[in-house]
Amino acid sequence: MPETPSFARPLPDLAELIASARVVTLPLATRFRGIDEREALLLEGENGWAEFSPFLEYDDAESATWLRAAVEFAWGEVPAVLRRSIPVNATVPAVHVDRVAGILKRFDGCRTAKIKVAERGQTLVEDISRVRRVRDLMGPEGRIRVDANGGWNVDEAEHAIHALAEFDLEYVEQPCETVPELVEIRRRTKYMGVPIAADESVRKEDDPIAVARSGAADILVLKAQPLGGIRRALDVIAEAGLPAVVSSALDTSVGLSMGAWLAAAVPELDYDCGLGTASLLSADVTDDPLHAVNGSIDVRRVIPSPRLLDGYAASAERRDWWLDRLKRCYALL
Ligand SMILES: O=C(O)CCC(=O)C1=CC=C[C@@H](O)[C@@H]1C(=O)O
Ligand SMILES: [Mg+2]
């Protein structure tokens, strides 16, 4: 038996992970993050199913953290939940303004929308018209946040946030790439009253607390898979001492069930969570997907349907690729 890590006691053998592993390729309803299909590896442990789905370009060291999260959720100790349903935001990719209404309709009852901005190859004018359309459709009570994925430099961010402020933004997520840039943009835009949230600067930095320590953000966006699991994400929230928004990584409903579990265990949950993205998929692994109903998703384990696992099974070549990745990442646990 390999050495016992804290996230799953004891660490299941690799053979056990491989025995239950299923790899799927799911079509997206809307291109997002430059992809039209989402690949994911699902695993069944003693607690139920979990998802291992680092993006394809991530290296093994980063991906091993995502595997730690899956192993914890399927085999390890998970914390008690404090709530049974989680309010979620609609997620609006960087689409043409004419597609905004169709996308919002996929998110039943969501009072909050997160809109992607600063997409490479697009202009601020396109961002402004997309955000304006969401504001028009949601009305004055809708809550609107934007996510730039670090796509602006500090001057561009200052200009864009100033231009978008008229839409009453709840926050701007990752306007710039680095922690020092976030510190600077937060200083420059403070007078506008638009809070800054950090996502990549939490999940991709070696030290997820650096953002909080440097005063680089008002809010943290936390994702269970990239942070290495629910308990690690809860530790980050406790140590950072900032309000948390729980989000996800374009997961299947199985991955979203882990995100919902994290959101359910966070002591204070003041913001709607980025866990409604099953609605961006045009197929899922379960007949009972975690779609928003009345603006919220359930906190529950998700059991994939054998019919859907077969129907959306990845090609033999992609399955082998994922199993090799699983083995390499397991070796890093
Ligand atoms: O937070 C949401 O509304 C949905 C999740 C989401 O936006 C993301 C999922 C996956 C990859 C990321 O580029 C992206 C994000 O940056 O938050
Ligand atoms: Mg983000």
TrEMBL record:
Cleavable signal peptide: none
Top-level EC class as recorded in UniProt: lyase
Catalytic site: 116, 223
E.C. number(s) listed in UniProt: 4.2.1.113
MF (Gene Ontology): magnesium ion binding; O-succinylbenzoate synthase activity
Pfam family, one: MR_MLE_C
Obligatory cofactor(s): a divalent metal cation
Binding site for Mg(2+): 147, 173, 199
Keyword Acetylation included in the entry's annotation: no
Reaction equation(s) it catalyzes: (1R,6R)-6-hydroxy-2-succinyl-cyclohexa-2,4-diene-1-carboxylate = 2-succinylbenzoate + H2O
Keywords in alphabetical order: Lyase, Magnesium, Menaquinone biosynthesis, Metal-binding
Biological processes, Gene Ontology terms: amino acid catabolic process; menaquinone biosynthetic process
Mandelate racemase/muconate lactonizing enzyme C-terminal domain span: 97-192
Pathway, per record: Quinol/quinone metabolism; 1,4-dihydroxy-2-naphthoate biosynthesis; 1,4-dihydroxy-2-naphthoate from chorismate: step 4/7; Quinol/quinone metabolism; menaquinone biosynthesis
Family to which this protein belongs: Belongs to the mandelate racemase/muconate lactonizing enzyme family. MenC type 1 subfamily.
Matching NCBIfam families: PRK02901.1
PANTHER family membership: O-SUCCINYLBENZOATE SYNTHASE (PTHR48073:SF2), O-SUCCINYLBENZOATE SYNTHASE-RELATED (PTHR48073)
Described purpose of this protein according to its UniProt entry: Converts 2-succinyl-6-hydroxy-2,4-cyclohexadiene-1-carboxylate (SHCHC) to 2-succinylbenzoate (OSB).
Protein name per the record: o-succinylbenzoate synthase
Gene from which the chain derives: menC
